[in-house]
Structures are given as structure tokens and as C-alpha cells.
Amino acid sequence: MRNTNQVKSHLEKYIVTYLFIALSVLFIIASGLDINYVASQLLLRLNRNAFIVLALIIPIIAGMGINFAITIGAMAAQIGLLLTINWGVSGVPGILLAAAITLPLGAFFGFLIGKLLNKMKGQETIGSLILGYFANGAYQLLFLFIFGSIIPLNSNVTIVGASGVQNTLNLTGSVGLYTAVDGIAHISLLLAVYIFCGALALAAVIQFVRKKITQKRLLACIALAVVIAGVFCIPAVADVVNGSHGRELKLPLVTWLLILLLCLFNATIMRTRLGQKFRAVGQSQTVANASGINVDRTRVIAIMISTVVAGWGQIVFMQSEGIGTFQTYAAHEQVGLYAGAAILVGGASIDRATNLQALVGTFLFHSLFITAQSAASAMFGNSAVGEYFRAFLSYGVIAVALIMYAWRSAKQKKAGQMNLAEQRAAKS
Amino acid sequence: MSEKTKEKPSVRSRIVPIVLFILAGILLVASVSGYALQGTQESKANLDDMRTSAVLHAASEGLINSIAQQARADKLAELRKDKNFRKRGLDEVNEICDGAMNEARAEAEKLYANPVVQDKPALESAIIAYETALAASGSLSQDERAAYADLYIQLVDNISDWKALAADGMDDDAVIAALGKTAPDLLKDENAHLRAGFVRLARDMAVKQQAKEDAESQNQLLTVLATAVPDWNEYAGLDKDALWEKLTAELPEIAAGEKFKDALLSDALARVEAAQKGETLSAPAESEAGAETVSETQADYRYFAATEDLAQKELAENAAYDALYAQLVTIIPDLGTLSSKLQGTLRENIEKVLYLEDDGFSARYNTYRSQKAEPEASGAWKLNLASLAQNLLLAGIAILLLGLVVFFWDPLTQRFGVSRTIIALFFVYLCLLAEFYNISVRMMMGNVLERMSMYGVLVLAMMPGIQCGIGLNMGMTIGCISGLLGIVLALQINLVGFPALAFACVCGAVVALPLGWAYSKLLNRMKGNEMTISTYVGFSFVSLMCIGWMMLPFTNPKIIWLLSGKGLRVTHSLLGSFAHLLDNFLAFKVFGIKVPTGGLLFLGLCCFLVWLFSRSRLGIAMTAAGSNPRFAEASGISVNRMRTVGTVLSTVIAAVGIVIYSQAFGYAQLYTAPRQLGFVASSAILIGGATVSKAKVSHVLIGVFLFEGVLVFGQQIANSIMAGGGLSEVMRIMISNGIILYALTQTGGGRRA
Predict the structure, then answer these.
(1) What is the pLDDT of residues B65-83, one digit of tens each?
(2) pLDDT reading at A227 higher than 60
(3) Residue numbers in B near A286 (CB within 8 A)
(4) A-chain residues within 8 Å CB-CB of B534?
(5) DSSP string, B148-217
């Protein structure tokens, strides 16, 4: 009885995720694409986008919904990148410089966003979306009319014969920002998986020795590690990974270390006092307020962290393999949409999210993204349908998540009222 | 509330407006004295002197330029003769040549810059004669060209089938009669001289249309060739005639394409050759016939003809110029050495000095100054002040208004709301700026009216949504898509004119009913989160329908992609169906402004109906349910039912609204085009003074006027400030989203806590 209920609630929570898993499998089969190609594209997109998606977690826990205003963090990063290109700093120093510029800019923008969102509590999702649109106007004003005329820039980034920044800026060649982080070192996927499994087993043993986890849990962890490692030992899988008829799958080491670091940051901050505050504010602002937490301040801090991290994520995105050009006026536009859709696909909702959900979500969302076009042309004989289907998926998944959240909270409210009424009846 | 406590802060808060009033007063006084100075004899005489020296400067400038260019060319030729020419870099060559040019220019300026005028009165009278001749012919030519452009745009915007109108063998009178059906003004006597030109236009357009259709059908046949033949090797070894025979025998479509025999044959031969090598050639690319960019029609003056009156005036103008030229040659004899091309430039330059569209004091002054004509030193400040009079007046009014708004801030914002006050002030400022940049406020107002009739009904769709308590109905795109479906259905069955318009409206409304009902059921479960959800439901629906537009089984070749034969095109021209139908209905002109009577009347009718509804029992119940759901529930009103009524109404009005929008635009745009319409309508109604929980018909009308007014004026002014830039787009994005953000901050606070 308890078990079926658990399964039911689990299914209810993760229905979107399971739907996406099914769709992904269907699409990968229907598209007829080479599995090695899909896997390599998927890895590429995962290391490109994971950072930005992870930036959404803290605001969700702090009860501010999906922070679509991370586009503004991306804009801050793009200002940083533009200045870096303008000053001709290349390679890792260039990336560090851009990140350093993003930090104060993103923090300041985040502060403003937080202040504004505090004035529209309960409407943060739509508020941050429209704020993103508004900021896009300000961004264009800055890049078209202020850069190049009021703030002087080098002629290699401005439009010849007019004010404003060029439509596309090259990151390759002498600019030297292309794969500045990705290209430092690579590690083969197989090795990475083995290291991950080893680390997982080791961590489980250590935790068990320190008596933090039960024996059952320990065994489960070790079993998981063995199973994952085992799967990659299967010849068919190993073939795909080693690319005996394709290219070998590799991970950019530094980028993945950064992503892991961010996961660690998200996990540890929740253990600190600040993290407790986020959680408390997210659960109930009234209770948090009553227990002496400055609700508004906590929310502003959450958004500031999210904005800065999203900015850095945008830098990771821009330098990554296969991008190479900086679309000055469009690069930030879809950041919020894709990241929001990805984290929701992973099973997060408007009020809870974890690192794992973010990573799984990015993985699933992009596996559909890669295959949608070919799958649509195979199924409908029309590749444009795939393009529209992708857009529909992004928007649809957000709409469904919002609806399910609103539905659930309405149900809870009703249940709460019923309880209250019952209590009253019992009293009298 | 004693007097003292109220007075203290008010003194401090009134310092700003008082300073503003003083500043405005100074500016206005300066402006009035400037206007007074414009009228004095001294200024007039001084200005006339400036005119003379400006003309002389314009004349000598041409000569100096020509000498300088000649010197540069000479130097370049000299360098080319040198053996070492190729060794020199481009920059070096340019530098040397520019040096020579500047030297020659300096010398020439010394020679000609201060020509000695012996017979000043004669020169002046020649100048005045030419100026008057120019004024007479110039204004007349402008009027005639405007009348021509008017007719041209009327014809080109409203005629879709030129071939039927000017078929081969039709005589001129028949063509004119046909054109006159679209543009009745052409049949008036005063436009008789233009008829021949327009007949030529019609014939040219018919030829162009034929060519376009030919290209399309040829492309279609080429696709048939690419797809219908399984194995080209069967055709190998045939000569041209045999190949053609075999093709036409096997593919009946090809037989109809006798006209394109050459192109088809060469394509077929290429395919045979490729097949023998074991390759296959790809099919031709899908033509972009439906994706043409939509832009405003510009008149083409190639078909323009002048009236006799104008021709005579132009003759008089030529004579006056000859007289002036003779005078100038006596002063600067070397003018006679200029080539005929440079003579033309000289005349143009002088014309620019003497013929000003706006011949006000300051415009004249500024033109003469730009020709380096200096006013007499003693009266210089007076002329300066006089020329600034208008700008000072505008600045004075602007500051006075700002002062007034600051002074009456509290009562104003209480009465009209902060956003409406600020936007209204901004709009007035834009009008003042338009005056400053010499943009015709009248014409802009005409545009504003046109856009009001275009967007009005769409904005009205927001009202029932707000009234019934779902807030800003961002999901009105659902209604818009229903309306678009109505339009393409009307196009599919080839309806034309008012029946098409009515069919599209009714059909859209019928589709919108169940959709709106289902949508309202969804929203009823999501109370408190409607705006977020409706936005994303709207977005998802637009993307879903993108797939729908591709998949729906429409068959009319006019609306589907020609080659693939399935999927609707992106942009559908409504020419020949119901473009501008309402707007042209009973349209008339006042002060040169075209009033789109039909559109405005329809907007008024819709507003009236919605107003009537909000006064009915159901409407009052709906508003009550929206503004205070608990109270409504207590008094026996079903809140959910009322919300359903409001949502369905909003969706249906949106469906009608998009049909009206498309007829005014002249095009129906599918796919992602309707996505942002909810935002546009929201910002408009919020600017009009509505909040997310309260709206009236007046908010709709004021809102759509102010919103469109700010956009139309802003666009023109932004273009004058920075041509070609995206400044107006930036302004639109920031205003429309800023206003929604502001509305959210007003109501969102503390809802969830």
C-alpha cells in the first residue's frame, strides 16, 4: 500500500522526465543518426550548457521560481567578453579577465533584479522573463549607441562607418578565446567514467566508515558504480565510446572540473547558514520572517549568486567547441528559455531542484534537441517541423511544469483547508 | 491635519517646479524677443545680405572644388608617368595627391573666395527673381508629385492582378477605366495629364507579373523533372527533339510547358549526363514566394508627368536662372570654364540655397550659415537670437510643462496614474521634438490614426480578461491564431471583399469559442498564477500551431508552398481579398490626413458592444467576480463561471482583432508572428491607465492612442537623430516591457507570503 503510493507520487513528480526519456529514445531511433555522432554532440552540449542550468538552482530553492533573468547575467558576461576582445587579451588570461569583469557587473545587475523581484512576489517567473526582454532593449542601447561613440572601442569590434558593435565577433584565430578553457586538456570518456565510479565507491566506503550512511546505502552505491562501469565494458557500448567507426569521445577536463566545482558549491552552500536561510525563505516567507531572517535580503543574495554564475556559464558557453563566433545581439536571447526548460525536464519544479536534476535535464533536453530535426524529416518528410517541434518542446515543458506546480499547490491548499476544518470540527 | 505640518514639506518640494517655471519664463521671453527681432527691417536686410554672399559662396565653392579635383588628378597622372610609381604604397600616393589638392584649393580660395561685386543691386534682383520663380514652380511641383504619389500608392497597394487589368490588346481607355475602379481620383479632370503615365505603369506591371508567374511555373516544371523521372538512363542517347517528344509523352505536365522548352531541355540533358556518370542532380530550391519582406510602398516617379502650368513655370525658372548665371559670370568669369556636368551641380547648389521647403527665418539663416555667409558683426547676436526663436519657444514650453507636471504631481498621478502621466508627458515631448526636427506632426497623426484602427480591437481583447480577474491575458494569442485560421480559410475558398472579411471574423470567433473555453478551464485551476501560465500556454500554442500550419491540409495553390505542395506560407498578401477594406470604407481626407473611417467605426462599435456588455447583468457579475471573488461568491455569483465568460470573450475578441489587424496591415502573418502580440496589447492597455485588476473602455482607447503615438513619433524622431539605427526599436522594447514590469510591481507584492 505504502509502496504503491510512493511509486505514484514518484511518477507524478517525474512524469515529464520519463516522458522525455521515452521521446529521446524514440527520436534517436527515428532520426537514424549515428549513435556515436549523437553521443559526441550530446557531450559537447552538456559541457556547454550545464554551467548555466546549474545557475538556476539557488533561486528555485529560495522560492523565486525559474529565474529567466539569467539572460541578464549572460549580457554581463558578453560585456566582459567584448571588452576582453577589445583589449586583445587572449587565451586563459582573456577568459579570466572576462570572468573578472562579469563578477561585479553580474552582482550589480543581480542586486537590481533582486530588488525588483522583491516588489512582485509570487510573480517572479513572469517578472524575470519580462525583465529579460526589457534588459535586451537596454543591452541593444548599450551595444548599438553607447559602445563605440561614448565609450570608445577599437575599430576591430565596431561597425565601420557607424557607431555600435559589429553583429558577429570572431573568437577564433588571433582573438584566441575559442576553446580557451575546453582546449587545455582532454580526458577520454571511458577513463572519466571509471574514475567517477571509483570515486563514487570510495566516497561511499569513507562515509560508511564515518558512519554517515547505512550499510544498505553503501551496498547500493557500490552496486551502482559497478553497474555503470560494467555497462561501459560491454563491447557495443565501448565501441561507441572508443569510436572504432567514428571519433573517440573525450571530455574537456577543465570545463568538467569547473562544472563539478559548481555542483559542489551548490551542495555545500545549502549546508551553510546562508543556505539554510535560502531554504527557509523558499518554504515560507512568513515563517522565515518570524524567525528573524531578512527575507528580502536573502532573496536578493540568491539572485545575485545566480546572475554571476549564469554570466560565467555564458563565458563557458561562448568559448566552447563548435561556437567560435559571438553573436553580439542574439547570443543571450534564448539562454533563459533553454536553461529553464532543461532543468524542468530533469524533474525539477518551481520550488525544488538539485544538481542531479539539472544535469539529467540538460542531457535529456539536448538529446531531443540534437535529434528533433532529423527525426522530424524522417517522420514527416519536413525538417522545418523539427525546428518548430523544438520550440514547442521548450515552451511546452515550461508551461506543463508551471501548470503542475500551480495545480499541486492548489490541491495542497485545499487539503490544508480541509484539515483546518476537520480540526475545528473536532474541537467543537 | 493642521496647516503647519502640511506646509513644511510642500515648500521644499515646490522649489523644483519654481526653478523650472523661472527657467521656462526666461526661455519664453527670449523666444518672444527673437520673434520680434525677426520682424525688424534691420534683420531682414542683414539676412538678404547673407543670402547674396551665400549664393556667391555656393558658386565659387563649385569652382574651387573643380580646381582642387583637377589638381589632384593632374598630380596622379604625373606620378603614374614616374617609373617608381608601383613601388610607392597606396597611402603614400594618396598623401602626395591630397597634398597637391589642398595646395590648389588654398590658392583657388585666395583667388575666388571674396569675389568683388560691382553691380550689387543687379545681382540681388537676379537672385530675388530666381528665388520667386523657384518658389512658384517648387511648391506646385511638390503638390503635383504628392498627388501622383498618392494615386500610385493607391493603385499598387490595392491591385493584385495587373494582367487582367492591362491585358494585351486592351486600349488605353479601357485600362484607365479599370484603374479608375481602384483609384477614382484618376478619372478626375485635374489628373488627366497623369493617365498616360499610369497606363504605362499598368502595362509594365502586367509584364512583370507575367515574368514572375513564368519563373514560378518554370521552377515548378523543373521540380517535376527532378522528381518524376525514376531513371534518366532511359533517355540517354536521344537528340533534343526526340528527348522532348519522349518527355512530353510520358509526363503530361511537361507537355503544358511548351513555353519553357529550352530551359527544360537543357535541364533534362544535364540530368541525363549526370545519370550516365552515376550521379543524380538535386531538385531546385524552394522559391521564397511567400516569404517576401513586407515594406511600405514607395512611389516610383518614372511615370510622372507635369501639368502644362508646371511646365510653363519651369520654363520661367530656367530663364531666371540664366539671368542669375549671367550675373555670376560677370563677377567670377572663370565660372564659364566649368564642364556641363559641373554646371548642373552649380545650379543644384544654388537651388539648395534659394529654395527651402520650410522658408522660415531660422531655416534660411541656418542654410546661409552653412554656406559660410557671415552676418554683419554688429547685428550678429540679434540674428542668432532671431533664428533660435522657435527652438527657444519649444524648449520653454517643454520646461513649462515639466514644471506644471511636477507642481501638480500628486493630483495628476491620483487622477491618471503614474505611468499614464509620464507617457502622456513623453508623448507631448515627442510632438515638440517632431516640431524641432521639422517632422510633419499632421502626417504623423494620420499614421497614429491608422495604427489605432489596426491595433484597437486587439487591445480591447485585454479588457474582459482583466475585468473577470485573470489579469493580463497573455494567452490571447490563442484567439489570434483562431482568427488567422479564419483568414486562411477565407483565402482557401477564394472569398473576396466584405464576405471574406465577415467569414474570417465569424470563422475565427467560432474556432476561438471552444479553445477559449478549454483555456479558461485551465486558468480556473491556477488562480493567482494566471499571467505566468497564460504566457507560456500562449507561447506553446504558437509553437504547436507552427507545426499545425505545416501540416494542415490546405490545397489552394495561392496559400501553400508552391513546390512542396504542402504547408502554408509564412506571409499571405491580402491584396485582392480584403486588404485595407475597412480602412478604405468611407475614408476621407482632412488637412491631408487620411482618416480610416471604417476601421475607426468598427473599433468604436466593438468598444460600444463591450461597454454595453459590461453594463449588463452578466457583465456586472463578471466584474464583481474579478474585483472581489470572495464577496461575489458570497452573493451567489459563480466565480469560475464568470471567469470562463471573461476568458472566452477575450479570446473571441482577439480572434476578430487579428482579422482587423491583418486587413489594415494588408498581410496575414502566420507561424511565430503572433507570439508577442499579447505583450503589445498588454502594454497598450496598461499605458491607457488600466491595472492588472481594473480596466475600462477609455483605458483601451487612450492606451492605444498613446502607445501607437509614442511609437510612430518616436520612430520618426529616432530616425532623424540617428538614421538607420535601431534606436526606435530599442525604445519600443524598453517602453512596452517597462510598462508591464511597472504594473507587476504595483500588484505582485506579498501575494504569495
Answers:
(1) 778 888 888 888 877 777 7
(2) yes
(3) 753
(4) none
(5) HHHHHHHHHHH---HHHHT-TT--HHHHHHHHHHH-GGGGSGGGGGGHHHHHHHHHHHHHHHHHHHHHHH
Does pLDDT of A99 surpass 90? yes
- How many other CB atoms are found less than 10 A from the CB of residue B383? 24
CB-based contact B547 A407, cutoff 8 Å: no
CA–CA separation, B560 and B572 (whole Å): 10
Identity of the residue in A126, A137, A163 whose CB atom sits nearest the CB atom of B733: A137
Specify the range with the lowest mean pLDDT, choosing from A310-324, B173-187, B486-500. Answer: B173-187
CB B497 within 8 A of CB B578: yes
Q: Higher model confidence: residue B531 or residue B460? A: B460
- Calculate mean pLDDT across residues A14-42: 86
Do the chains contact at A399 and B528, CB–CB below 8 Å? no
CA-nearest residue to A126 within chain B is B532
Sort out which chain A residues have CB atoms less than 8 A from B542's CB and list them: 395
Give the start-to-end residue ranges of the domains of chain A: 2-184+252-427
Helix axes B530-551, A124-141, angle to 10 degrees: 70
| CATH level 3 topology of A2-184+252-427 | ABC transporter involved in vitamin B12 uptake, BtuC (1.10.3470)
Q: How far is B408 from chain A (nearest CA, A)?
A: 27
Long-range CB contact pairs, B146-152, < 8 A, 24+:
B147/B191, B147/B194, B148/B194, B148/B197, B148/B299, B148/B301, B148/B303, B148/B304, B149/B299, B150/B185, B151/B183, B151/B185, B151/B186, B151/B191, B151/B194, B151/B198, B152/B198, B152/B201, B152/B297, B152/B299, B152/B300, B152/B303
Q: Where is B380: in which H helix or E strand?
A: helix B380-407
In A, minimum Cα distance to B682 occurs at A130
Minimal CA separation from B725 to chain A, in Å: 8
Q: Which of A125, A144, A392 sits opposite B725 (nearest CB)?
A: A144
Q: How far is CA B672 from CA A36, A279, B540, B696, in A?
A: 34, 39, 11, 30
Cα distance between the two ends of chain A = 33
Query: How far is the C-alpha of B705 from the C-alpha of B587, rounded, in Å?
Result: 19
Share of chain A above pLDDT 70, in %: 97
A75 within 8 A of A139, measured Cβ to Cβ = yes
pTM of the model: 0.78
Kindly tell me if the per-residue pLDDT of B280 is higher than 70: no
Q: Give this complex's ipTM.
A: 0.87
What is residue B495's three-state secondary structure? coil
The span from the CA of B124 to the CA of B748, in Å, is 72
What pLDDT score was predicted for residue A311? 94
List where CATH 1.10.3470 sits in chain B: 421-747
Which among A395, A400, A417 is the top mutation candidate for probing chain B, defined by the most B β-carbons within 10 Å of its own β-carbon?
A: A395
From B528, B566, B730, residue closest to A141, measured CB to CB: B730
* Torsions phi, psi for A272 (to 5 deg): -85, 175
Residues in chain B with CB shorter than 8 Å from the CB of A389 are: 543, 547
- Of the candidates A129, A289, A403, the beta carbon closest to that of B526 is on A403
Q: Which residue of A lies nearest to B543 if distances are taken between CA atoms?
A: A392
Gap from B738 CA to chain A (nearest CA, Å): 6
- Assess whether pLDDT exceeds 70 at residue B293: no
The grid coordinates listed for B43 are 534683420
Question: What's the CATH fold of domain B421-747?
Answer: ABC transporter involved in vitamin B12 uptake, BtuC (1.10.3470)
Among chain B residues, the shortest Cα distance to A376 is held by B547
What tens digit of pLDDT does each residue of B312-354 get? 777 877 877 777 777 777 777 777 777 777 777 777 777 777 7
Question: CA dist A259 to A320, A329, B677, B694, B715, Å?
Answer: 13, 26, 39, 47, 45
CB contact (8 A) between residue B536 and residue A380: no
